[in-house]
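Let's practice the habit of predicting before peeking. Look at the sequence and jot down your guess about where helices and strands might fall. Then scroll down.
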Amino acid sequence: MSGAARIPLLAAEQMTPDQRKLYDTVVAGPRGEMIGPLRAAIHSPELAALWSQFGEFLRFRTCLPKRLNELAIVVTGRRWTSQVEWWVHARACVAAGVPQAAVDAIGELRASRFTDPADLEVYEFTRLLQHTGQVPAAAYAAVKDRWGTRGVVELGAVIGYYTMVSMTLNMHQLPLPDGATGLPPEPGLVKLAPGVLWGADPPVQRHAEGTQLA
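Done guessing? Here is the structure:
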């Protein structure tokens, strides 16, 4: 791993029995490895066990399509310039079906162009919540109308959980894997550009209050 973390990053052979049990559970599960915030949380095994269960549900078992889950995660990771979160989930987002160009635009803080209205709705919901701590009525209704009450509740939980992940990775300075390329460093939270629905005539953009601009 590149860089130096502020806390010890334990190898498997250095772990207590409780830590090793959790580690073995994580690497045997859908994550397949432990490179993220659990490397910090494992110093508190009870916390880490609960964290792992919560995160596994929010990443893999919400009612939202995987691409929308991952889109919300990369928007959150970019807002916080969380290096490990971005590195893991930018790739996962593309693999789940979000266009590479849209993910690249998020990374470069440019307006992302989406051809699927559902993608734009989740992007704007996440962007606005991250920027203001609130979700305007129109942006909220768009997600709730499409995915129902469960969907909007779970989306909010994904955003909140991955904000905690971003803060944890940043505060402890957990490093990227060796050879991995991260985001440019930022002095604080970044501003994400409003998304655009491409293919509309004319293209539809949303401003900070969530209404449409031709």
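How did you do? Strands lie at 113-114, 196-197, 204-206, 212-213.
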